[in-house]
Design a protein that fits this description.
It catalyses: Exonucleolytic cleavage in either 5'- to 3'- or 3'- to 5'-direction to yield nucleoside 5'-phosphates. Keywords: Cytoplasm, Exonuclease, Hydrolase, Nuclease. One of its GO terms (molecular function) is exodeoxyribonuclease VII activity. The chain is an all-alpha fold. It has a single domain, classed as Helix Hairpins (Orthogonal Bundle). The longest helix is centred in the last third of the chain and has 37 residues. The chain is elongated, with a radius of gyration of 16 Å. The relative contact order is 0.14.
């Protein structure tokens, strides 16, 4: 695994997490990894997807708050 896959996911911004997730998906789609490597990569992909969802939820909350304040 590369240094990018050693990065703490909680430290990644949305774009970095999304880009790494795209890379993980491409690697998994190519196949050729042994079962342990595939499972490890899949687990990282799941964690990256969750991190992206967290960023999007935060952005959504900020937009909703701004819209609510604008309506007042």
């Amino acid at each position: 695994m590369s240094n990018a896959t050693d990065t703490d996911i909680n430290e990644l911004g949305y774009e970095a997490a999304r880009d790494e997730l795209v890379s993980v998906v491409k690697i998994l789609e190519q196949g050729g990894l042994d079962l342990d490597a595939s499972l490890s990569l899949w687990e990282r992909g799941e964690a990256l997807a969750k991190r992206c969802e967290e960023h999007l939820a935060g952005a959504r909350a900020r937009v909703e708050k701004a819209l609510a304040e604008a309506d007042e």
